[in-house]
Amino acid sequence: MKKEIDLLVIGAGPAGCSAAIYAVRAGVKTVIAGGSVPGGQLLQTNEIENYAGFVNPVGGFEIMDTMHKQCKRLGVEIVSEEIVKLEGHKTPFIATCASGTVYEAKSVIIAAGAKARWLGLPEEEHLRGKGVSACATCDGFFMRGKTVAVIGGGNTAFEDALFLSQFCPKVYLVHRREGFRADQVTVEQARKNPKIEFVLNAVPEKILGTEIVEGLRVKNVQSGETQDLAVSGVFVAIGAVPQTSFLKDSLVGLSDDGLVLADERTHTTLEGVFAAGDCADKHYRQAIIAAGTGAKAGIEAAAFINKHR
Ligand code: NAP
Predict the structure, then answer these.
(1) What DSSP letter does each residue of 206-224 carry, written as one string?
(2) Cβ–Cβ under 8 Å, residues 233 and 149
(3) In the chain, what is the straight-line distance between the N-terminal and C-terminal CA atoms, in Å?
(4) Which run of H or of E encompasses 86?
(5) What is the distance between the alpha carbons of residues 301 and 108, in angstroms, rounded to a whole number?
(6) Is residue 48 pLDDT above 90, yes or no?
(7) Number of the ligand 1 atom closest to the C-alpha atom of 240
(8) What is the pTM of this model?
(9) Does the structure show a pLDDT above 90 at 121?
(10) How many angstroms separate the CA atoms of 48 and 67, rounded?
């Protein structure tokens, strides 16, 4: 089935919602294709304290639910469709969904976000869901009363460790060096938390256990010594990779690491196609910045569409 629309926004996180809000208010018929569970990474974020406009910490699900309701009130259609292909060298563009639905859109905004990066250990896949997870918010509950390890030194790892310390007696934070990417406030919170123990200059070498996780072998990168941590859960929090594989045969330029190449006005290498949020952000990857670049993309796409009417 082919549907003709003005604007297709790919992704229903803060970037996609913000883009759609700006576009629909400029008179553009807008559809957001949000994948099977529209909402992006914030759906897996327990609490957010640095999104301006909220006095108290707010749940990631709550923010996204509010944004989706705001979009719908303004007339944006949000569909649970996954885009698998984007074609066309000029407007209109053809976007094919996994369901077979095809959208013909005068303009497209790519706001597809990013997903968890994995360590690449052979056991990781086999033990996923059996103690290995990339989402503490989703799976932490199953680790109640158990000792766990979190891998990484960024904000996600620290926030996961703090979250898990609420119901785990001990949380190892395993990081490959001594410096952290996480902000200082969060690092200090973790340092003061008696349940969190830092295991630094250490890389995971093997996840132990056959049916369920029984431990984590880490190797000290300075001494070469290995140590087995007796844990029931391993939470991998080592960053994210952009969700842009559906663009590989398109004319939208991508960087070597898969980010959509876009200028400061969100224009990609293909005129009429714009990009916003984490799928095009090498440096910040913050919800509020995703929303900001989404707003830019919505303004730019609306101007493009209104010029080509
Ligand atoms: P990140 O900042 O990129 O940190 C990833 C961490 O994983 C780094 O410490 C990195 O080590 C480590 N790492 C990467 N590959 C590894 C590997 N193969 N083996 C072992 N360790 C590895 O990712 P993030 O923590 O997911 O955060 C992503 C973005 O979202 C950041 O901009 C962050 O500030 C933001 N964020 C913000 C909040 C918030 O403000 N509330 C919450 C979550 C995330 P190195 O440091 O040695 O490279």
Answers:
(1) EEE-SSS--EEEEEETTT-
(2) yes
(3) 23
(4) strand 83-87
(5) 7
(6) no
(7) 26
(8) 0.87
(9) yes
(10) 15
